[in-house]
Amino acid sequence: PRTDDKALLKLAEGEIPTVLMGTLPDSGLHAVDVDNRLAARKAVEYLLNLGHKRIAFITNAALCYSSATERLQGYKDALQASGIPLEEGIIRYADFDPGSGLDCMKSLLDCGNKFTAVFVASDNVAMGVSSALKAAGLRIPNDISLVGFDDIPWAKYADPPLTTIHLPAQELARQACMTLIDLIQGIHVDEKILELDSHLIVRQSCRPL
User: Fold this and answer.
1) pTM of the entire predicted model
2) What is the tens place of the pLDDT at every residue in 122-178?
3) How far apart are the first and last CA of the chain?
4) H or E stretch including 179?
5) What kind and span of H or E run contains 195?
6) DSSP letter at 26?
7) Residue 87: helix, strand or coil by DSSP?
8) For residue 51, is it left (φ>0), alpha (ψ between -120 and 50) or beta?
């Protein structure tokens, strides 16, 4: 959901049963999600524990999407906890698709700011990031370590297989539908936001420094 989506806020005011996949702060709508902020923090902490200190970040989408804001905050949390200053110059904002990832990574490489790893808050965006790195003659993970988010089916078949945060997409959809059916049938659902577990899947796209 987008934080600027006025139609969603109107749904919250009415009596139409509605369940979001992803949270919309202060809307009062039922939602099913993962803790995007904590998951992103774990991804960045993994890179920090490998010895990386200059970690670039590319969002999954524009910051009007709640998941993008939350994942950016998790990145900031991990850096702050490690005493590493935030560098706005190595943050870019993608748009869900591989092409935006390609453009973001080209921009990062062109700006001249050095980094040894990049956390990309979407595997789909990471496809483009990977292509841009390879086109620039950089190897993953020898030159740049790469972590994604979502664990979509292609991630384990990437070259190299992508380390990423596993998001339980099918279970998110199932729980959202079950909650919606309950609401349609007039069953009271106590829990406004149901958070499912996510975890880091370590593959071969990162190396220690």
Assistant:
1) 0.94
2) 999 999 999 999 999 999 999 999 999 999 999 999 999 999 999 999 999 999 999
3) 38
4) helix 169-184
5) strand 193-196
6) T
7) coil
8) left
